[in-house]
Write a structure and sequence with these properties.
215 residues, alpha+beta, two-stranded antiparallel sheet, 6 helices, 12 strands, globular
Length: 215
């Protein structure tokens, strides 16, 4: 059995989150997701519908990674200390699933390997195929693609180079936009699978923060 110890400090979380995107935000390498790809049916789905589908089938499908020579596929996660989770919910959508790093590690995943854009441009044709899904360009100067700055260090990305299949007991939390979303998701998957205390409605958090700061 592979074991992985995860420490708990204010700046280091034992958890990672996978966010679903809204329909107006294209999937990564959308052009490579054709009718034969399991994600094709969800290309135009709303973020909450994508979340419900993931929970219903207990699978997150891998998608092609950009800016790499062979566009190998992976499932992406972000290390989610609380403040980072809130910021990413604004960028992607307020819908996501939180897992333990231990689960992702035991399934074959790990932290993304951030490499400078100029270095990656030189070596990208020689990247081993098993390593490519884990590579994340750090290219603030836009060397790899002129005019496109890649600065995602703040996401503290983790990747799994294959679909993630899971059980409901593996789900640490479900992130949703509102309390009504909790009801909708629970009714969709069955109220017996994930208890209400494992849902995080983002509007509740925002209300608390607003009241706290104005007190």
């Amino acid at each position: 059995m592979i074991t992985y110890y995860t420490r708990k400090t204010p700046d280091y979380s034992p958890l990672v989150v996978h966010f679903t995107k809204e329909a107006d935000r294209k999937m990564v390498r959308d052009d490579l997701i054709d009718e034969s790809h399991p994600l094709f049916a969800h290309k135009n789905s709303a973020a909450i519908e994508r979340l419900k589908s993931i929970l219903e089938f207990k699978t997150i499908y891998a998608s092609p990674m950009p800016f790499l020579p062979n566009n190998r596929s992976a499932v992406c996660f972000s290390e989610c200390i609380w403040d980072a989770l809130v910021d990413l919910a604004r960028v992607y959508s307020p819908y996501g699933i939180v897992f333990s790093k231990r689960l992702v590690f035991e399934k074959g995943g790990g932290p993304a390997l951030y490499i400078r854009g100029d270095t990656l441009k030189l070596v990208q044709q020689n990247i081993p195929s098993d390593l490519e899904p884990l590579v994340a360009p750090f290219d603030p100067m836009g060397v790899m693609k002129p005019g496109v700055k890649l600065e995602f260090l703040h996401e503290r990305e983790w990747r799994l180079p294959k679909p993630l299949t899971f059980e409901y007991t593996d789900v640490k939390y479900v992130v949703v936009a509102s309390v009504p979303d909790v009801i909708q998701v629970m009714q969709h998957i069955g109220t017996q699978h994930i208890s209400v205390d494992r849902f995080i409605p983002m509007d509740v958090y925002r209300t608390i923060v607003t009241e706290w700061r104005s007190a």
